[in-house]
Each structure stands twice: as structure tokens, then as C-alpha cells.
Design brief:
InterPro entries: His-Me_finger_sf (IPR044925), HNH_nuc (IPR003615). This is HNH nuclease domain-containing protein. This protein has 201 residues and is an alpha+beta fold. The chain has two domains: 139 residues, Homing Intron 3 (I-Ppo) Encoded Endonuclease, Chain A (Alpha-Beta Complex), CATH 3.90.75.20; 40 residues. The strands form three sheets. Strands 1-2-3 form a three-stranded antiparallel β-sheet, with helices on one face. Strands 4-5 form a two-stranded antiparallel sheet. Helix 6 packs across helix 7.
Length: 201
Amino acid sequence: MSYSDNAITKRLPNIEEVLHEMRMIPDYSPEDYLVHPKLGMIYSFVSGKWMLSNNPVGVGDKGYLLTKLRRKLDDGSYVSVPVYVHWAVFSAIYGRPINEIRHSGFNGELMEIDHIDRNVKNNNYENLRLVSSKENKENSSNRYWNKVRLSKELAAQIRDDFKSWTGTKLDFYKAKAAELNVTFRSVQNVVLSNTYKEITE
């Protein structure tokens, strides 16, 4: 079976089809959750579903996919823990708890996950690499200046797509920015006609 870089937009397999390919997430029960490394997604046995399969937008200004996993404590009770999907995938592949990996940098420096292809929705394990906070900031800075410039055709398409969008403006800006590899502000300016004013409706 082959997998798309953006599995969220494709048909997801039944868990029985890929159970042999799944990995457990350290610190979390395999009876509750497993990760599929190639899909870059978490399957929840608690809900019986692929997590975030209906949320391609993500959270925050960068659009990372964030969910909550329940973790069992020593006293038998459960606590709900916010977890970024890319960290869950990376932790499952390397077999170490997320917090341990995050604090594995030189002299205690916090480590971060870099998405190699710049698509933060693509959590395929081959697209993830562990970097220092400094390296990640440098990568992000370089990528900002390497963003593509919108053509008039793309700007017109953005406005057309926005007309049929049923979600919030904020979600549209984030989704389009990730899709076209442009900044959030670029999409917003096109929609609000702050740029490309010469394009007529």
C-alpha cells in the first residue's frame, strides 16, 4: 500500500489493514493509541478513529496538528495531555518518550522537530528530523524568504476559493498558506483586496 504525503485528504485505511505497520507511543498505552509512521497519524482505540482526520487546518499561526491523548497515572486515574502529532510520530519511531527526546540536546538545550518539506501537515516519519531550537529558527527564517510569490492567476484562484469556503476566514488563510507555500499574511491580503486590487471580480 502506498501513502500520500497528505493522508488527511485521502481515504484512510481500516486499522485492520495496517495494524502490523503501527507503532506504540512511549508513555501511552498501545491499547489506547498507535501511530502509523508513513501516514504520520495516530489511531485512537478509545474513539475507534484516526485522530484529526477531519481537521486539515491545525492550530496556531503555523498550523501544527495538535490533539489530546489520555495517559494513565500510577494511581490508575487518567490525565489528558496535549500532544503535537509530529512529536507522537517521532517518539514512536525512536522508542523514547517525547519529553526525554525534547531535553536531549547538548547542555540541556531543548530540541524541536523540523518538517523537511516545509509542510507541517506532512507528519510522515521520513519528513521529520530532530534539530536544535536555534537550527529550527534559522530554517524558518530562510523559508520565509523562500516563499513563492503569488501570481495574478493564483490570487484570482484564492478569491474564487474563498467564495465557496464554509469555515472561518482564519482557517482559510492558514489552509491556503500551507497549500501554496506562502505566508498567512499574503493570503489574507489577497482576500481583503489589500493586494492585487487590479484583479476584477
